[in-house]
Amino acid sequence: MNLLIIQTAFIGDVVLATPLLQAAREQLGATYVAAVVRPDAGGLLHHHPAVDEIIPFDKKGSDRGLKGLIRLRGRLREKHFEAALIPHRSLRSALLARLARIPVRVGFDTSSGRWLLTHQVPYQAVHEVERNLSLLSPLTSAPLSFKPTLYPDDTDHTAADDLLKRHDIRPDEILFGISPGSAWATKRWLPDRFAEIAKRLTDEHTGRVVLFGGADDEALCRQIAEQSGVSPINAAGQLSLLQSAALASRCAVMISNDTGMAHIAAAMDTPVIALFGPTVASLGFTPYGDRHQIIEQSLSCRPCGTHGGPQCPIATHACMQEITVNIVMKTISTMIQTLNPEP
């Protein structure tokens, strides 16, 4: 079976779709699996054994509008896909599969384009990984159990090692990751608090801190580094996604907002402490697995949306303001003790 998966949402969503890719290959027995993703997320799937082809769809750039859909439609028709699994719930994603004349089109019953699907699967209140796997239910009744996975290669690990060498980091030195950015302003914890965490991790746990992010996060990470006073490594914008994944695998723990880096680190088996503000864990987008911890405050205004937003609707940002440095440090210390109990 030639099978297509369409997930053109954010980086974290693509990571959470990797179990679906694995299940399509291993459980369904698909002989050819392709993934339509945004160009900035495609690098995550390089070297993935369940993916035969990565098809970039620049829906906000060169592929924007009807012309972009028609152009990609022609490319997909040439592949003669027999089925499409569509975790992304937009009209555009469902329409793309329909225009490509893919005979079996499976998506969620909450999709804006559900009327274009041949099979609608209930959108359940479970983790996104399990929701995505449920899209296979019209095609197989076998139980499914897969976790997010990424596959940085030797070149990716070498790039991460080279960055550490430039900062005189020994191979046995303890690293702590911090990912302070987000595409949504309300999802970002306060920079001065991240700076204080960096200082206290360095002083109290004798490790080095690495600041993660894309090129857009470089200025934020530089600000945090300067405020911390302990010279953390600013890796923002210096590595590809898989190189960042390789670097995350070196960290004892990753402290992150509710953003893609949390899922990348979790996929590399790095314990994650995720700070949830405008979004809530019950939406199903937490780092997947039982090694991770979520910090969130119980407030009547939460959630104020499924993604966060550019500004707090009630102008308090209390969801993040009420997460203190002491709360986060206590969680970090407990996690470190749990992972490395003293003899």
The helical percent reads 25-40%
Query: How would you characterize the largest beta sheet?
Result: 6 strands, parallel
Spatial order of strands in the largest sheet:
3-2-1-4-5-6
Percent strand:
15-25%
Which residues form runs of ≥5 with pLDDT under 50?
Answer: none
Arithmetic mean of pLDDT: 94
Q: Radius of gyration from the CA trace?
A: 21 Å
SSE sequence, one letter per element: EHEHEHEHEEHHEHEHEHEHEEHH
Figure out the total of helices: 12
How far apart are the first and last residues' alpha carbons, in Å? 53 Å
The best one-word shape is globular
**SS-based class:** alpha/beta
Number of strands: 12
Topology (SSEs and partners):
Blueprint: E1 2-6, H1 11-26, E2 32-37, H2 39-42, E3 53-56, H3 65-79, E4 83-86, H4 91-99, E5 104-108, E6 119-121, H5 128-133, H6 154-166, E7 175-179, H7 191-205, E8 208-211, H8 218-228, E9 233-234, H9 241-248, E10 251-257, H10 260-267, E11 272-275, E12 293-295, H11 318-321, H12 325-339
Parallel strand pairs: 1-2, 1-4, 2-3, 4-5, 5-6, 7-8, 7-10, 8-9, 10-11, 11-12
Helix pairs in contact: 1-10, 3-4, 6-9, 7-8, 9-10
